[in-house]
Amino acid sequence: MESIRKYVAEVIGTFVLVLLGCGTAMLVGCGADFGGGYILTALAFGLVIVGMAYCIGNISGCHINPAVSLGVLLSGGMTFTDFVGYVVSQCLGAIAGAGMLKAIFNLGDVVDKTGGYGANGLANVNGSAGAGLLVEIILTFIFVMTILGVTSKKANHGSFGGLIIGLTLTLVHIFGIGLTGTSINPARSLGPALLAGGDALGDLWVFIVGPFVGAALAAVVYKFLEDPSKNVKPVAEKAAAAVKTAAPVKANVTKSNNHPNKKKKK
């Protein structure tokens, strides 16, 4: 039952991410001459992460991204069974979110300024799959490294973890929207691409492979940098442990009648 709750939370979180993130892009547009659209779309994705982190973070960890789940898996933070369950849930949530956008925009006869439900594409990099892969690998690497650092047991960010992760997502979106639309999330790309079809569906593999490679690299690099074998306990902790475990030493003094300063009785 606990796993089911986690999976449902991931469905809801990814649904909201696609609905509000891609929906904002569809409303404001993200063309080359829409600088304001870049900022608003980036903020939409980032703010969704902040909100969902505090909403479902204590239930599922708020991955809402298969690449994040892969990073957590490779870092030893989840089982392979849960990884599969998370990815399936995230994809279902993304497809549902894209479907809801289609229903809203069609029923309301609203213009989709992205022309494809906010789907990612390679048009702005002249159709170069290589460039698209590089962008997605690098941005996903940055994002997943941040998540692993913020959620590490050694980190002490208090209640600001969700905010830090959300702001990082906003930042990578500001940079990447003009290049690939910024995926860093295979599920987020899958939902809109299935409905848009055409080039969006043909380019989809870039937005699956790139984020997964970036996440895997982030997990490997973070584990290397963290290197638990070299962690040293603070001096105070060491001293306390030493005092606690040390056996008490008792002085064993024997009385002697031959003490040099003691006079012998006659």
UniProtKB/TrEMBL annotation:
Its membrane topology: Multi-pass membrane protein
Matches recorded under SUPFAM superfamilies: Aquaporin-like (SSF81338)
Keyword line: Cell membrane, Membrane, Transmembrane, Transmembrane helix, Transport
GO molecular function annotation: water channel activity
CDD domains with a match to the protein in the record: MIP (cd00333)
Family recorded in the similarity comment: Belongs to the MIP/aquaporin (TC 1.A.8) family.
NCBIfam families the record matches: MIP
Protein name: Aquaporin
Species this protein is from: Ruminococcus flavefaciens 007c
